[in-house]
Amino acid sequence: MSSKRSPDFVLFVLTVALLVIGVFMVYDASYARAGVKLGDSYYFVKRQGMFAALGLAALFGGMNIRYWKTKSLANWFLVASIVGLGLVFVPGLGVNVDGATRWIKFPVLGRFQPSELAKIGLILYMAAYLTSAGKEIRDFKKGFFWVLVPLVPIMGLIMMEPDMGTTIIITMTVMVMIYMSGARTKHMLSIGAVGLLFGGLLIATSPYRLDRVISFLNPFKHYFGEGYQVCRSLIGLGSGGPLGVGLCEGREKLFYLPAQHTDFIFAVWGEETGLWGTLLVSGLFLAFGVKGLMVAHATKDTFGRLLAVGISSLISGQALLNMLVVTSSVPATGVPLPFISYGGSSLILNLFCVGVLLGVSRYPVPVGTRR
Length: 371
Fold this sequence. Notes:
Layout: H1 9-38, H2 43-63, H3 74-87, E1 94-97, E2 100-106, E3 110-112, H4 114-133, H5 140-148, H6 151-160, H7 164-180, H8 185-204, H9 207-217, H10 228-240, H11 265-298, H12 302-326, H13 344-362
């Protein structure tokens, strides 16, 4: 039998620290826009505060779930994820914003982004499948091929929205889980090559994606087009210097930088806190990822270990991709910064994921099993 442990305290503190920074930065980055366009400077931060409270409730709920009992629900989570992604295309339910249909609108609750649920559903399904597959994952026909099958409908629906950023994050997370389950390197490289080829075809056949790649090569040459957002982001980061211009003193958020309280909030933080501030947040996410992998390493249960790997990779990988986009290290794609960017679906479900991860840290060996 296994005795219950206390949840990983460092992991909890890291999450709360990022959450506190996030709620403050949503206010800081949005008050001017909210005041002018909505007549309430506190509009976004009030909603983010509500999302944070709901997210913390979800965190404590997830932490108290005996995670190994969710293994039997993995298939249902996968089906729910696919259905949710399909509902965004139903007239009257789906919400289109700036040419992307990624949300479902509910009368009271507002908008919900099914792709956030799909991330959790796929992690749960993959952890369950890979646990059952065992060593067969090293055989392409018996194990490796079949683990990729659920990716097709999910990736297809997300790309139809379109949402390249979420597609990249989910694919990366699943590949890490497959690799950590013992898959052969040559199989991973083969799928990676196919993925790169497919991604290249998507870019070549999509004018707006091709424009983003071209503008990425020289954003200031395309300042008045596709490069504008990245240019303003770089201007903000450069203006911050080593120490920043001071909290609440940034200028880019004053109607220069688009998506200043969502996908590009890291640029506002960098302008106001400087290099030390960006290193602080980067360090917090790095520590989160490392601590999550330490939880996975300490877990004797294969299912729990893969859950921990998937959640850690999802959150830290998404943070890395967001920072790479904001610093123009990769072509622009819409990916929020976990715990910090404004948005209810992402915040609540990410905090729930952390709760599940903390739950894994409480039970290195599931109750009722013997080593």
